[in-house]
Write a structure and sequence with these properties.
12 helices, 16 strands, 30% helix, Condensation_dom, Condensation domain-containing protein, alpha+beta, 2 domains, CAT-like_dom_sf, Alcohol_O-acetyltransferase
């Protein structure tokens, strides 16, 4: 194993430098990081290889394009966390040369077990797994400055650069609060009760599993979901719910909270910038066990109605502003957030990769993730991305349900051949 730091070229574009206080949801993730790890990752399976030096240069080009890749998080005189541009902040790249059957998931597990030092930065790490004829590119990020879609676009940008194309620089992305016309965090007085920072972060050891669904089954699921007046996401939520109840006995009859992250880029009119642009929405399931598969899928879809709107994003951001803004008492905020994120299941679906997967000599075969510990450890976090017509699933958990992903593929295969009124 080799560890590289990208040879640094100074960024002289002052307009491309990010310096501002955190928005409410960004600050929430910074606060959550004091409690438990919420770092996350995507993995790209790529046909073809390039020299390490080419990848180094491509990652540096992507860093110069995205202002949030050259920041650390510091506290100002009012105890407000803020993004601060750092000129010489090389992104670490870990390189492994392995055989073709090497299990890349173990490297994601290692990355998710290592915490970012936010006060130093950078807030991204890269793992480059080189096989004889293919490459796996793993991006691990801090959630205060990025989301799954950001990492997907970053994969595209790195592949664009490594295939010899230039990347134009982007302007710093404002917080979602600013995009909505909301004021920044205002502290009128310092609290007498100050939070004592510690380096003794909780150790985590998540397990990561993955599976790729073939194109035929993926196409059948898309068509059947449309026929049943639901969505692929609704069908996948139903699949995970039904199987989790069957495979984890203590969940068989309990009220289940299922979280779905919702991309906020479209309602806020945002571009491909690297930043945190999501909301999350909970749907609760109780007493649905005798319903058919497709009725549960429609319940899941209906539970997310109205979430892809500016009004929803504004209400969501205002909720976290009420928790995280206008106070210097960081410990009080942390105490409130300790009781949050108690869900059993998260289904985080980035949808289809909508950019070309051809990059000169390289082809992006599949993308996996997002992979993240989303709750307290027993939750099942199902990541979903569709690339080249095939669904890719991951399950990230400290306590994964054994065989869940394989049974998901079997259940959706059966469900696509099942009448709407049949319980699967």
């Amino acid at each position: 194993m080799l560890i590289y730091a990208v040879k640094f070229i100074k960024n002289t574009n002052m307009k491309n430098q990010q310096n501002r206080t955190l928005g409410a949801f960004e600050k929430t993730f910074w606060l959550l990081d004091q409690i438990d790890s919420k770092d996350f990752a995507l993995a790209a399976d790529i046909d073809g290889i390039e020299p390490v030096t080419a990848w180094q240069q491509a990652i540096r080009s992507a860093q110069l394009r995205h202002p949030n890749l050259s920041v650390r998080i510091v506290q100002d005189q009012f105890s407000r966390p803020a993004l601060e541009h750092v000129d010489q902040l090389p992104i670490p790249i870990r390189v492994l040369n392995v055989d073709k059957d090497y299990r890349w998931e173990q490297e994601v597990e290692k990355e998710l077990a290592v915490r970012f030092i936010t006060a130093e930065g950078p807030l991204l790490r890269v793992v480059l797994i080189q096989k004889p004829a293919s490459t796996v590119l793993i991006l691990a990020a801090h959630h205060a400055v990025a989301d799954g879609t950001s990492l997907s676009y970053l994969i595209r940008d790195i592949l664009t650069a490594v295939s010899g194309n230039e990347l134009p620089a982007m302007n710093p992305q404002p917080s979602n609060d600013e995009s909505l016309g909301l004021p920044e965090d205002v502290i009128t007085a310092l609290s007498d009760k100050q939070y004592i920072w510690t380096d003794q972060n909780k150790a985590v050891a998540p397990k990561v599993l993955s599976i790729r669904v073939n194109k035929e089954i993926t196409d059948k699921l898309i068509d059947k979901a449309r026929e049943e007046k639901t969505t692929v996401h609704g069908a996948l939520c139903a699949t995970v719910l039904i199987l989790s109840r069957k495979m984890r006995s203590e969940w068989s009859d309990k009220k289940i909270e299922m979280i779905s992250p919702i991309c906020a880029r479209r309602p806020l009119g945002l571009d491909d910038n690297y930043g945190l642009n999501i909301t999350t929405h909970a749907v609760y399931f109780e007493g649905e066990q005798n319903l058919s598969f497709w009725n549960v899928a429609r319940l899941a879809k209906d539970g997310l109605s109205g979430t892809n709107t500016e009004e929803h994003v504004k209400n969501y951001i205002n909720f976290f502003r009420g928790i995280a803004f206008n106070s210097a008492d960081i410990q009080q905020m942390i105490d409130i957030l300790k009781n949050a994120f108690n869900h059993e299941i998260m289904v985080t679906n980035l949808g289809k990769i909508r950019y070309s997967t051809e990059f000169g000599k390289l082809k992006l075969k599949a993308v996996y993730g997002p992979m993240v510990r989303s709750g307290k450890g027993k939750e099942q976090t199902i990541g979903v991305i569709t690339s080249n017509g095939s669904l890719c699933f991951t399950n990230t958990s400290d306590n994964p349900i054994d065989g869940l992903l394989e049974k998901m593929v079997k259940m959706i295969t059966v469900a696509c051949e099942t009448a709407a009124d049949v319980v699967v």
